[in-house]
Structure prediction request, 367 residues.
Amino acid sequence: MSIQKFRVGIIGADTQASWAGASHVPALQAQPSLVLAAVATRREESARAAADAFGAGRWFADPYAMIEDRDIDVVTVAVKVPAHRDLVMAALRQGKAVYSEAPLGATLAETEEMATAARGAHTAIGLQGRHNPSVRRAAELVASGKLGRLMSARVGATTFGYGPQTPEVYDYFNKSAFGATFLTITVGHVLDVIEAILGPVMEVDARTELLWPEIEIVDTGRISVRDTPDHIDLIAKTQSGAPVSVQVLAGIPPQDAAFSFEIRGSEGWLRLTGNHLAGVQVGDLSLTASVPFDAPDAPLATGVGPTAAAFWAGAAINVGEVYASLGRDLTAGTYDTPGFAHALHNSRLVATVERAAQTGQRQVVAD
Prediction:
């Protein structure tokens, strides 16, 4: 029996500095029920080049033309956050399944609008860290009760981004108005991994800092102003009962990148570790524990896009797990993949963390 192939079109699959090219393209190549059918950018030259490099059958210089094409079943939105809303809403109006990078909207209001419009549709949000096989196994281990009563958890996370220097193409991450900040991206991903294992965050106390208010743009030499925090310390109470202390450091040299998530219970402990320079959501993770557990499943996708820089190695692992989940949903008619409602939850959680930091007072998380 042949497996139905759902045809995916990626908006933003450029061959230059493209997250989609580094992660989404090789992730799709590993899927039994999904196939890369088309790519779209804003220019004919880049769209043609991307289709040729990534093996897509078709290319579009107008993303909306691809969205309207009847031969596309799934639209992946992998462009800058301010452009998400119009593209996502257009895809939902066409009845397409939609996979959007996180954060979903440039503002909480945009995210709420898209989450409301997506009710009843198949959607996926790019909070891919929770899909990592080791994260899934850690969640199962916690739920099994083998660790006993959960007493505490500690997270240390880093990213090479949001430091004192950046190329011009990434300067928009330094501007809160664009919605793609240290809090909404880096901290949002870390919090989502915590919730995947320990359950929803119920209360949070946080402190943020702006360590590098002036940023050197390395390819032009100009100085840009960062208006959003680039460091955070927080303490959270989770539904599991375990309090979590979290520190997220930005601007770390690539060779010093590290992620560690340690959970201690009355009967044992577990630890998740990783070292991808871009953060916990990008690379693979390793799981160790003081109690026995089944080895995590092997990731479905392990390659890297043909035009990707070497530092993106491993970027397809977690994205591949998102696509695998979405493919199962599309095939079976289920809705198990965390989608836009989950994106809204994450955005509200980040907003609560930011409010806690601004007020200096513990905040209750309301969803």
Notes: The chain is about 30% helix and 25% strand. The mean pLDDT is 95. The longest helix spans residues 340-359.
